[in-house]
Amino acid sequence: MIFSKTLIAWYSNNKRDLPWRKTIAPYYIWLSEIILQQTQVKQGLPYYERFVRDYPTVFDLANAPESAVLKLWQGLGYYSRARNLHATAQYIAHELNGCFPNNYTDLLKLKGVGDYTASAIASICFNEVTAVVDGNVYRVLSRYFGVDTPINSPKGAKAFKQLAQTLIDKARPAEFNQAIMEFGAIQCRPKNPDCESCPFAKGCVAFNTQAIAVLPVKIKSAKPKKKHFNFLVLISKNHKTLLEKRKGKGIWQNLYQFPLIETKKDLDYNAFKDLVDDHSAVKGKSFELSLYNEVLVVHKLSHQHLYTRFWIVTTDDEVENAIPISTVKDYAVPILIGNFLEVFNF
């Protein structure tokens, strides 16, 4: 009880002024929580504001085409979140008449909603006593109580959830959950936490045993795979180019990209041109090939690193399924392609 009172008192004096803290409407809380998964507040805030502006209700979001939702999401990464967001909005709008489930158990059944998000919505919107556990909470609890169980292990996930549940203020679950997340975000930071002004310093195991740098413990993930991506930026005589929609369950599902040739290693000009000669987009056509970036662009994803080159392909021939270059920026593309479009002058 002392822990929760101290935490909530700190929160009342230090919390940031954020738009989703001015409402308990499930749609806005859900929207903010999905956007903030794997995303810091400073990055996610403008996206939240744009989504609220363009889709002020769950019905507006449900009725939007997926391509528009993905376009608005562009730059946030982890695009499965956007696809799940759209699918869940359609389910709530069309199957539940716009009403969100009002408890943790039913919220957990929604696509894209896990333990953390269900707990956040249930406590903030419906005052249910269910503790949130995210990266910030793991850090606060592991440091204060000196818990060295790996946070990304099944044992750790269960142990920290149980610990958080014993600490939550049963009279004020919404405040407690928001307080502990905020405390981890701005006070008990991953690096350079503000221990000198921390109200928990006296009882913090990590602070008093010089273990701040080693807690929380996390099992190292497998080394990311290294892939070589070569994008063909086609420019035809009538100022058209070619985009293709990614299919399957891999990265960037349903986003658009320039035609891609993936290779096992970085190739020199002549070796790569032989591959381009056989590509369906230009096979049998007369074209010129030039390399846009001499220095590889390295795009790091959670499980793979993409070593990328953009190749400019110019042709005077007609290209099947080509689109006007002026419309390229209307398509939802991965940030890797979006960054290229920002600097390349068609």
TrEMBL record:
According to the UniProt entry, its GO molecular function terms are: purine-specific mismatch base pair DNA N-glycosylase activity
Pfam family for this entry, one = NUDIX_4
Question: Which EC number(s) are documented for this chain?
Answer: 3.2.2.31
Q: Does the keyword Iron-sulfur apply?
A: yes
Keywords of the record: 4Fe-4S, DNA damage, DNA repair, Glycosidase, Hydrolase, Iron, Iron-sulfur, Metal-binding
According to its UniProt record, this protein's enzyme class is hydrolase
Q: Which cofactor does it need?
A: [4Fe-4S] cluster
> For this protein, what does the record note about how its cofactor is bound?
Binds 1 [4Fe-4S] cluster.
- Segments forming domain HhH-GPD: 35-186
Family, as annotated = Belongs to the Nth/MutY family.
NCBIfam families per UniProt: mutY (TIGR01084)
Q: What is this protein called?
A: Adenine DNA glycosylase
